[in-house]
Amino acid sequence: MNMPPIGLGTWPLREGEAERVVAEALALGYRHIDTAQMYGNEGDVGAGIAAANLPREDLYVVTKVHQDRFGEDRVMASAEDSLRALDCDYVDLLLVHWPPKDVAVERVVEQLEAVREAGICRAIGVSNFTRPQLRAAASVARIETNQVEYHLLIDQAPLKAEADSLGISLTAYMPVARGKAFQPEAVYEVAVKLGATPPQVALAWIVAMGVIPIPMSTKPANLASNLAAMDLEIPPDDLVRLTALTAGHQRFCRHATWEPDWDA
Fold first, then answer.
1. By three-state DSSP, how is residue 172 classified?
2. Pick the catalytic residue: 30, 39, 150, 173?
3. What are the structural domains, with CATH classification, of the chain?
4. What is the mean pLDDT of each successive set of 10 residues along the chain, which is 264 residues long?
5. Which residues of 11-37 are buried (b: 16+ CB within 10 A; e: fewer)?
6. What is the pTM (predicted TM-score) of this model?
7. Is 39 labeled as catalytic in the residue annotation?
């Protein structure tokens, strides 16, 4: 199954709320669910998937291995833990959550590829990788996606061009920049013009850039609205106007201990 064009992000949902939101999203038509070991909610996400009672082959489930597992060679056992928590026979995509600073990229990918060969996941990918790291990863195995912060207020065009050249998709976490991406006047004006909401415009722009957004919401109305954004077509002149907003290059997800040299 190819990765659906929109997914449900589940950070920072926990316990009953996570289960409810996942089940409601699947009932609305979402088929791509994203979680991670770091979120501490894989069991809750799995409960939501079970509550939806959909055929497993109709779903695209993504989780991420914590970066500290790679130096200890605990990736296989850790991935098996995720399967048990999710109550799934396999995940469709397994990512390394952040690039480990003390393990070579090639070794990281080799360990992920061993998990894929064991049948625990159908495909492997990375998250928060820079262009050089992405090239190194692609030299070892087929990389499905690089999940990164991507929205109207950050210029990720160089990273997108690199990923395109390697045949790797980008997945957009934090796609509305914690609400900041639909505050610019240009976003509001395009929304009025198209009879849409500003969040829908922010998400539709991402899709128009060839990137897969994974927004999170706890409200059924917003879940439905985000899904409907996939049908919104932004005229070329408005795409140019919106893309100009990325010049501000605002990054909202910062981890001093984990993040790589973004400018590499």
1. strand
2. 39
3. 8-175+211-217 (3.20.20.100)
4. 95 96 98 97 98 97 96 92 97 97 96 98 98 98 98 97 98 97 96 98 98 98 98 98 95 90 82
5. bebeeeebbbbbbbbbeeebbbbbbbb
6. 0.96
7. yes
